[in-house]
Amino acid sequence: MMYSTVQFIFYTAFVLLILYYTPRRFKLWCVFLASIIWYLNWGALWFSIFAGIIILNIGILFLFKKRSDKKLFPYLVGLNVFIFVLLKVLPEFIRFRTPYGTSFFMLILLGMIIDYWREETPIQKEDILPAMVMPLFFPVLMAGPIERRKHFFPQLKTIPPFSLNNLVDGILIFSIGYLKKFLIVDPYSRSVLSSSGIDNFIYQGLLDTFITYVLFCSYSEMGRGCAKAMGIDLAISFRPFYYAKNPNEFWQRWNITLGTWMRDYVTFPAMFKWGRKINPDFIILFSFLLMGLWHGIGLNWLCFGLLNGLAIYAFNVSQRKWSLPGIGVFLSVSIWVGNGLFQHKDFWHRMTRSFELIPELRVHDINLSLFLGAIGLLFVFEFIQEKKNKSDFFTSWSLWIKLTIAVLVLFYFGWKLDDNSLIQTFDLPPVYFRI
């Protein structure tokens, strides 16, 4: 069930209804079962594999508790990295496709294990259920965020009772995400963009990165809205990246939880261990190469990581030696164009073809006025977010104002059900999303 489908909306409403009548001490079990059912929708075999991975890890964590052997943890981390690599590499050689969110699942699980290792805290019996729910929690598996144990466990252990305020906020957050996809991503995916010339890959790179940003934002916000309605606050993964003044700030806005995960579990530990022998800038570059391969196995994703790592390396060096004005913005725009280009496995063909043709840009099969108007509204909305320095600034409004808007949103969804617009959005995201 994709988040933007009528099936998912009714499923989430049913889960919320069950949660409302479930005693507080059993609410986490309800969320666990809801996540299992959601994952079974993708296939019983894959759910069995992921359930087996979770049970294996929790079992080994209990083995660590009994033996008090800290040396066991590196082997456990290595085992999970090996499983992760297999899930990434095998589809390149064998004809099968992993479910959506596999990479999110593995990073959440790895982060949880490493946190236990660092804190030297044995897993307790009361941690078993949260540890099983955390990597399977269905609102985070489509587009993140990559949650951490310190932030997520306390919320899972004390899921609050039903709150009208949380429900309304959840509906509004979900609706904003859905409207981004319905008004911007869907029309763009149905359109035919014909462009040629040297500026083709610039147009295409800018557009693809922007559309990917809106798509990720939309699914992330739909997931956050579902979790908020349950009383669970998820971390924010995306902020408007086009306000970034340098590559470092770009990655403080783009896939935020992925960047902080790599920083805390790869970059900083490597600097701490090898910082005196290896230039820290090269460690950062290596981290971005890994981040590129996290998205997918292929030359395009390796170039994706290399571009971002080199941009940050160039910016850091320039600031230390010359402090060149405007270099940060130039490198940020380069990342913007390059990230869109390197999403495609045929990126080299796209680039070489661009130099052979005369510049021309045409858009077909799209209501251009509505499309551009929706983008304009998005810019205004995100400009207000930047000014207020708060992503969900409307959550501080009066409950009655939010309730009125939520009712109008529900009427809108009802209207879309009548003309089958919601059902028609049962599409699969681009390859970039199968991570």
UniProtKB/TrEMBL annotation:
Output one GO MF annotation. acyltransferase activity
Coiled-coil positions = none
Which domain of life does this protein belong to?
Bacteria
Q: How does it sit in the membrane?
A: Multi-pass membrane protein
Indicate where this protein resides in the cell: Membrane
Keyword terms: Membrane, Transmembrane, Transmembrane helix
Check the record and name the Pfam families matching this protein.
MBOAT
Q: What is its main location?
A: membrane
- Alphabetical list of InterPro entries matching this protein: MB_O-acyltransferase (IPR051085), MBOAT_fam (IPR004299)
Q: An example Gene Ontology cellular component term from the record?
A: membrane
Q: Under which name does UniProt file this protein?
A: Uncharacterized protein
